[in-house]
Request: fold
Amino acid sequence: MSAKAYIEEEDIREDDLIPLGGGYSNLFFKLFQSCKAQFIYKTRVVAIDLSGPIIILRTQDNKIYKTKRVISSIPLGILQRNLIQFNPPLPEPYQRAIASIGNGIANKIYCSFKEPFWGKRKGWINFVLKGHKYNKYPVAFIYPEPKNHILVVFVAGKGSYELGQMSDEQIYKDFDEFLSLFLDDEEYDLEQVKLTRWHLDEHTFGSYSYYKVGTQK
Ligand SMILES: Cc1cc2nc3c(=O)[nH]c(=O)nc-3n(C[C@H](O)[C@H](O)[C@H](O)COP(=O)(O)OP(=O)(O)OC[C@H]3O[C@@H](n4cnc5c(N)ncnc54)[C@H](O)[C@@H]3O)c2cc1C
Reply:
């Protein structure tokens, strides 16, 4: 919640990590309560017409909104797929920048266990397997939730694409097989797994932007 703390990461103690009940959206809903603005949710913009003195936004359900200003924070993946029609088209330098920025994929697998095989330990678990085919689950984070024992596995790049093709049932089997390389059967009881699929989500189509080789201003 603090840009300063983000830079000084070493100052963040594990005890400072607080899971937000119900997810991040609850934090925003609280902030929104103090705003006078009207918020319209679950509404996909498909066209932005800036050609006249008043800007016209069209939504997927064909509603029209008229306004003097638009601040857009649409994810890069949406812009790269041209899912919003701009009239006139975005200026050429913007289009070049959008096309040249990298759109990476990172996902998380939320794995619940009957009992925490990690005991009272907190923080990160690194899985190290030199040259093994299973290098797609490199690191996991013990979710600080005392009742449900959840391990959040980070997956990125090629492994993340590969997992995105699989059902959660298939990922369960695969991850269970992976864990059995480290633990005996009786040491853990994997209940469920759930993979985020940000690269397939039609409101994001990607996880993060980065300067790839050849990125232009
Ligand atoms: C696994 C993972 C780990 C990450 N870890 C970190 C981290 O540790 N630190 C960090 O700083 N960042 C991290 N990030 C990145 C961070 O989540 C994003 O950078 C951040 O959420 C981007 O915020 P945003 O407001 O730009 O976009 P978003 O949060 O994606 O918001 C964009 C909004 O636009 C909406 N939208 C899309 N299309 C339309 C449309 N046509 N009309 C109307 N609305 C639309 C979407 O529904 C969404 O609500 C991580 C991301 C992932 C996936």
